[in-house]
Structure formats: C-alpha cells, structure tokens
Amino acid sequence: MTNQSSHTQKDPNDHDGITFEVVETEQHGNQKKISHGVYPIPNLITSASMLSAFFSIVASSEGRFDKACLAIFLSAILDGMDGRAARMLNAQSPFGEQLDSLADCVAFGLAPAILMYHFALHEFGRFGLTCAFVFSVCAAFRLARFNVQIGTVDKKYFIGLASPLAAILVTSSVMVAKDHAMSFTSQMLAGLCAIWTVICGLLMVSNVKYYSFKEFDRQKIPFVGLIIGVLIMGIALYDIPVGVLAIGVIYTLSGFWTTFMTKRKKI
Description:
The protein is built from 9 helices and 4 strands. With 267 residues, it is mainly alpha-helical. Strands 1-2 form a two-stranded antiparallel sheet. The protein is globular and about 60 Å long.
C-alpha cells in the first residue's frame, strides 16, 4: 500500500508535456513553497500592455502614427497598473516578474523603435535602422540590468533612465514632430530623430540616477507643491504632446543633478 502511494504521488517538477501549467517556487517568509498556476489579474493587465504594444507596431508599419503613439502611452499606463494590482492583491510571483520584463521589452523597446523608424529614420536606410536598433537593444539591456540589481540598489532611485520614460520621450517627440513637421525638411527631421533616439537609448544604460517616486505617494509635501503640480498640468493640457515632452525632458535632466549631488555628498 505504501509503495503504491509513493508511485502515485505527483512530483512537482514532473511535466506530462501536454497540460499548460506553470510550476514555480514562491518565497513565503523563510519558507519556499511550490506553487501551481498563475495570478490572473496582474498577468492579464501585463498581457493587455503587450497587446497594446503589438497594436502600436502594426499601426506604425501602416503609417498610422497617432494611434501607434497612443497605444504606447496606454502600454505605459497598464505597466504601472499591473505592479500595483499585484501588490494590492498580494499576487506577486516570479512568473509575473518575468512576464512583465518581457512585455516591457516589447512595449518600451521594440514598439518605440519601430515607430521612430517608420516615422523618420527610414530616410537614412541602414543607418536609421541602426539607430532604431540601438534604442531597442538598450531597452533590453536596461531591463536585464534592473532585474539582476533588484535588492542591491536603493529603491528610491533608478540607475539609468527607466524604459517607460524613454519610450514616452520618443513617442511624444514623434507627436510633436508630426504636429510641427512644416518647420523642418525631411532630412533635418530624420537627423534630429536619429540623434534623439540614440540619446534616449544610451540614457537607459547609463549610470545616471533618477528619483523613482516609489515613496512619493506616502510622503507629505508643502501645499504650494500641489498648486505647482496643478499649474504644470494646466500648461501641459494647452499642448499635450509638447507638455508631456517638456516634463519628460525636465525629469531626464534632473537625473544629472541628482547624480552630481549624490557624488558631492560622498566627497
């Protein structure tokens, strides 16, 4: 009887090759537990982010740049939602973390690069293709470095420009350029886009420190700070693409100041 039960007991690492299943090890305090299945809500939100990025890629290839840009912005919103949903529902898992990284690579690496290539960089042929590739591969490097540095760096700061913000910088610049295309020749526009795309890509893999805002929602600020925030939103609404790009550029430049001040304190 004992021998029979030992043969029928299912090995957690045994896969029959037919059933669609995820088996992973989850950490619960000081104990590790074998878990089967996935958490639906955060992983479905992540999948929706990837779907939006996929739509952006298709729209870019068809020349529908407005819809492609909006799809990337939607991916960024969904990317912020899946992590919060996982924390609120206590539904964090290794599978979800890996899926989120892969989705980010598509949404904030591949989709913006393809958008920029079809919008302007194709004017330069292989050189334009190289600039788009530099951005996409830097996004992949950025995400890989972030994954291996979890737990070893200060959570208050990002090392290198976060890939969603880099994607927003590229996307909003396309929207601004599209609205003001009459101010530039096609070659001039392509040149500016090429330089901007490479800069955004290299900032992702730089060691510039950026404030992560992960503790911002739990901290109090002076009342005047709230008024300034409302004024900034009002200015951004006057011309949304220009406003988003301006806020993104200001935040990008703030990283150099943060890095300088951090090094100065260590001296």
